[in-house]
Amino acid sequence: MDINDNVPTFTNPSYEVNLKESDTQGTYVIVVYATDGDDKTTNNGTFDMRIVSVTPKPSGVEFFMNQYENYGNISFKGCLDYEKAKKYTVLVEVKDRGEKVKLSSTCTVIIHIKDQNNHIPTFTGETGEIMRLQVADRDTKGTDAWRVKYEIHGKLAAHFRIDTTPATNEGVMYVIKPLSYEDQPSLNLTITVKNDGKYFSCKVLSKNGKGGLWDVAQTLGHGAPSTRVVTVNIEDVNDPPIFNPKTKTVRVYEDIPVGQRLEVLTAIDRDVNHGNQITYRKGHDPGGVPPETGTGTLSIQLKDRNDNVPQLATGVYDVCISDDDDRPSQANLTATDLDLPPFAGPFRFALHGDVKDRWRIHPQH
């Protein structure tokens, strides 16, 4: 007859495992195995497993075990929370079913909880002329669950940017495009902040759920970001006056009288706090220097008048005449005119004096 002289023991005296706090209830934590050297057909060689204790005492979560012959699956129900407990120590017992004496042993399962993003960053303050934004986040520093990124929303959001300081999550806002006091002396910007990592939440609704689990509400995704409205007050500076329009074009005849008015150029100064008086000067100023100087351009296009007479290329032409040659003598006449078309060529040539039956122009222009 078999006697109960073997203590049931676990394969390992201790185990360690990691769980993310976002893991859902019912997730297998670990499988533990046990053996007993006694006859397995008797109570001395069969055994039961159970969880003896969990340290620290769980809140909102419960660890349980399902046994299958010589091994047990440890799972949990409810919601894990890294901020409540970063580690659980589970003491598991295996005890045989001996009739006269029951022998038992234990193993230890250490469960490390890994922080996930279950806290939305919240604004705590803003300071400085160059705006600095502070936020608080209860997740583990340096992780995606803790790191934040800022976004700016509003009519002139593209004129600003926010850089995040990695060590503190502080946001520093910069102006990256010019602002205009005259267009908008004050503006409101909505700033949002959210984590790099996906947000999750878990809440126990009831301990009477289906399938032996609890009734919990769990979400996974991006939670609603925290928002803050900041007011940016723009200070007026002495901006240069502006021509309206910046460029004008006039067309006048080249013989316009001296002193004739060509065009009216108008500049406006939108500064309201400087009381500037505008003076106009003619000159070349491509850069607008000093900065309170504005420039405009007047393009003058001259229209031609027929104020130049055409001129022969030369005043004297030599022509050789031979009595032995019946061919007519000839000379090429060319002329120029300083005017532009249509007041220049083509020209009409004419001969004056006693030229009849002696000289002619060819062709007859």
Overview in brief:
The chain is mainly beta and 365 residues long. Helix content is 0%, strand content 40%.
Provide a descriptive summary of the structure in words:
This protein has strands at 9-10, 14-20, 28-35, 47-55, 61-68, 71-78, 87-96, 104-114, 122-127, 132-136, 148-153, 160-164, 171-175, 186-195, 199-206, 215-221, 226-233, 242-243, 247-253, 267-268, 297-303, 311-312, 335-336. It is mostly beta strands. The strands form eight sheets. The chain has a four-stranded antiparallel β-sheet with strand order 1-3-6-5, with no helix packed on it. Strands 2-8-7-4 form a four-stranded mixed β-sheet, with no helix packed on it. Strands 9-10-13-12 form a four-stranded antiparallel β-sheet, with no helix packed on it. Strand 7 (87-96) and strand 8 form a beta hairpin. The N and C termini lie far apart (148 Å). The model has no long low-confidence stretch (mean pLDDT 88).
List the keywords.
365 residues; mainly beta; four-stranded antiparallel β-sheet; four-stranded mixed β-sheet; 23 strands; elongated
Number of strands: 23
Provide the residue-averaged pLDDT. 88
What does the oligomeric state look like here? single chain
Which secondary-structure class do the elements indicate?
Answer: mainly beta
In spatial order, strands of the major sheet run 1-3-6-5
Q: What integer value in Å does the Rg equal? A: 49 Å
Broad shape? elongated
Topology, pairings included?
Layout lengths: L8 E2 L3 E7 L7 E8 L11 E9 L5 E8 L2 E8 L8 E10 L7 E11 L7 E6 L4 E5 L11 E6 L6 E5 L6 E5 L10 E10 L3 E8 L8 E7 L4 E8 L8 E2 L3 E7 L13 E2 L28 E7 L7 E2 L22 E2 L29
Parallel strand pairs: 2-8, 19-21
Antiparallel strand pairs: 1-3, 3-6, 4-7, 5-6, 7-8, 9-10, 10-13, 11-14, 12-13, 14-17, 15-16, 18-20, 22-23
